[in-house]
Amino acid sequence: MKRVNRLFTIAIFVFLYIPMVVLIVASFSKGKDITEFEGFTFMRYAEVFQDRSLLSLLGNSLLISVLASGIATVFGTVACMGIHNLKPRMRKTVMSLTNIPMTNPDIVTGISLSLLFVFVGSKLLQQRNSLTFWTLLIAHVTFNLPYVILNVMPKLHQMDKSLTEAAMDLGCTPLQSFFKVTLHEIMPGVITGAIMAFTMSLDDFVISYFVTGLDFITLPVEIYNYTKKQMQPKIYAMFTMLFLLIIVLMVIMNLLQLRQEKAKRRDAK
User: Fold this and answer.
1) Cβ-Cβ contacts under 8 Å for 239 (sequence gap 6 or more)
2) What is the pLDDT of residue 66?
3) To bridge 30 with a disulfide, which of 39, 40, 100, 121 should be the other Cys (CB 3.0-4.6 Å)?
4) Nearest Cα to 197, choosing from 23, 105, 9, 67?
């Protein structure tokens, strides 16, 4: 049985990562056909950095990801403090509601937010263009919040309450106690939540597609238009760089969690 489970796990990983391997190999090929490798070259990567429109789209994606993850991290951390202080039954209810956006299909979230923004923009604010940079930013913050809360909340549960009480007994105000004690204790969860929010925002397409206006377009949304015609080989290079960026962020996130676990074991001894 163990052997079958192992083979099944290997098959799943092969199915998931073979397309990425093909894409990475194609990004170094001289030919335009992804099915044939016609020689090794870095030309596709050079073409990416020479394409100002593509770099501009990448800059848009990075800008919205940094802003959305930063805002979501601040709001999510503050929300965790409030949720943590609720009564157990109320806390479970709020956490269940918080997890709904993660289980809700992206297309439902995207269409719902789009309808909301169009209604508010056209009916209440009397704007001609209801979908703008700000609607995209609000949408990204909205779906990033649960991921931040999911990472920060366990750190609050693991923290010793006596630490904040001791800080206030020594003269700290509740705000000073938060920044000097609580924030320090939950920082690994905050950083992990920020990294996860950044990666989710960077590669989001479905929600962005429904809330993006004409004045600000992200890379995933524009790439969708590329798929309607023959794909340019330089796009393979762009995908490869984004994939490697996300891999690096995931490694950093796992290293932070591993470091925290080692620190806890050391303190327990």
Assistant:
1) 23, 27
2) 94
3) 39
4) 67
